[in-house]
Amino acid sequence: MCVGLGVALAAALSLVGCSTGAPSAVPTVDGGFVVPVPMRPTGPAMARPLECIARGGDRVSQMTCMLPYLENMFAQVYGPVLTQRGVAFEPPTIVYPSTSATTACGVLKRPGYCPADHTLVLPLAAVARTADEGAEFLLKDRDYWARDPAMSRYLDVPIAVLRSGGPMSAVVALAHEYGHHLEALMGSVDHVAGLAEGDQKNAAKYASALELGADCLAGWSLKVGSLGKAENSQEFGVLALLTAIGDDYGAVA
Fold first, then answer.
1. What secondary structure, in 3-state letters, does the chain show?
2. How far apart are CA 79 and CA 39, in angstroms?
3. Which of 7, 8, 140, 187 has the smallest count of CB within 10 Å of its CB?
4. pLDDT attached to residue 66
5. Cβ pair 83, 15 in contact under 8 A
6. Can you tell me the distance from the alpha carbon of 173 to that of 179, in angstroms, rounded to the nearest whole number?
7. Residue 242 banded pLDDT, cuts 50, 70, 90
């Protein structure tokens, strides 16, 4: 069972794992880099990743600028969720490969989480491409936006400005995969794997439950993290990513 980047867009911004086993060594990364993750960060409020977008530059450099803030924020937000339940919090190993990363779950070329070695993989270039694909899909048919309350807010925003919000997609991608890490630490991944093994007919529904659970955690974390109010273009960047990926809701209907 692999856990991939799921989707959800609730009131505001809401947002692959494989079979569990003995932890392996630190994953090997084909290009890219590993950003150290603080164990139990403390200190003042998070610097806002929105500032990184305002600096300009290409998408990957803007996302890279966000990473220290995001890793620190998610550790602070998600850590207490576990400690309040008597579960020790350990941050995941987060890698940002240029192409792929080899984990205990195999080679991951797109955003994913491997519960076997608690590795979170986030190829920033892939996230940016996916967000761009979603943006182009949405921009193909702007005629229906006026009839859709969720989209009408973007009608007066220049297309070039809407396209500029893509880097915000990294925030949601990381939030979702970090949500899978919490599911693994709380035993949800093992529990669902056991259910799926005993009920193969409904295995896809069990997997979708994990995806939707990570979506819920992601949306909650972004609210609690108080990143600041996103501009319309940044909201559109998140929506574009979610549109390109699809929705797991129908799988559990």
1. CCEECCCCCCCCCCCCCCCCCCCCCCCEEECCEECCCCCCCCCCCCCCCHHHHHCCCCHHHHHHHHHHHHHHHHHHHHHHHHHCCCCCCCCCEEEECCCEEEECCEEECCCEEECCCCEEECCHHHHHHHHHHHHHHHHCCCHHHHHCHHHHCCCCCCHHHHHCCHHHHHHHHHHHHHHHHHHHHCCHHHHHHHHHHHCHHHHHHHHHHHHHHHHHHHHHHHHHHCCCCCCHHHHHHHHHHHHHHCCCHHHHC
2. 9
3. 140
4. 83
5. no
6. 10
7. confident
Which residues are paired to 2 by β-bridges? none
pLDDT in tens, 16-29: 333 233 333 334 44
Rounded-to-integer distance, Cα 221 and Cα 204, Å = 26
CA–CA dist 159, 135 (Å, integer): 10
Nearest in space to 180 (alpha carbons), one of 70, 81, 92: 92
